[in-house]
Design goal:
It is built from seven helices and no strands. By secondary structure, the protein is mainly alpha-helical. The chain folds into two domains: about 110 residues, Receptor-associated Protein (Up-down Bundle), CATH 1.20.81; about 70 residues.
């Protein structure tokens, strides 16, 4: 299947990776802010961020490697920003570069982390509203629609010249209705913010 839809799966994987980065970004920024508050060198703070933050840690390992190879810290951070399509990551990179170049150690980084947490809360509330709607849709598709279909099959065969074969009914209940239920559940699982 991955051979048939390679672009779809690549985009799906990339979207999931970006969502994981957004999830861990506020914690990582707060960790860097705490390190800087305790006068930890900026390069060491970046190295500390390369453990414990999932996908972001992989990226911060690359940043540390780039710095070891002779790249400046701002250039290594900018490369990370260019590799990512995530707006939150680009904002974090800009803030880290600004803090590094201007010496405003932790205040701006901590403030950005707080803003990102607030955005995650808003996304969580939006998802809760969606979840209520799709919960009703799931109940409708899993109980009401099959019951109406059953009634239609019975009424159609008794009072109308509209008949369903037993294989039609079997396919509807064994394949079609479960597929609709699965689609709603899958959408909810993918739409759920990674912070939940």
């Amino acid at each position: 299947m991955m051979l048939v839809f390679p672009d779809f799966f690549r985009q799906f994987k990339q979207k999931r990776r970006l969502a994981e980065m957004e999830r861990d970004l506020p914690l990582l920024l707060r960790s860097i802010a705490v390190d800087l508050q305790f006068k930890t060198p900026f390069e060491q703070s970046l190295r500390n961020a390369s453990v414990g933050y999932g996908v972001l840690s992989e990226e911060f390992s690359k940043i540390s490697s780039d710095v070891k190879l002779g790249l400046s810290v701002p250039e290594a951070l900018r490369r990370f920003g260019q590799r990512s399509d995530c707006v939150a990551v680009k904002r974090a990179v800009a803030q880290l570069v600004f803090s590094y170049e201007n010496g405003f150690a932790s205040q701006g980084i901590r403030k950005l982390a707080d803003e990102l947490v607030q955005q995650q809360r808003i996304k969580s509330r939006e998802f809760a509203a969606k979840q209520a709607f799709f919960g009703l849709m799931f109940i409708t598709l899993s109980t009401i629609v099959p019951a109406l279909f059953s009634a239609f099959v019975i009424v159609g065969s008794v009072f109308l010249d509209f008949t369903f074969s037993s294989s039609d009914v079997w396919i509807a209940f064994a394949v079609l209705f479960p597929a609709l239920d699965f689609t709603v559940l899958y959408y909810l699982s993918e739409a759920k913010p990674k912070v939940l």
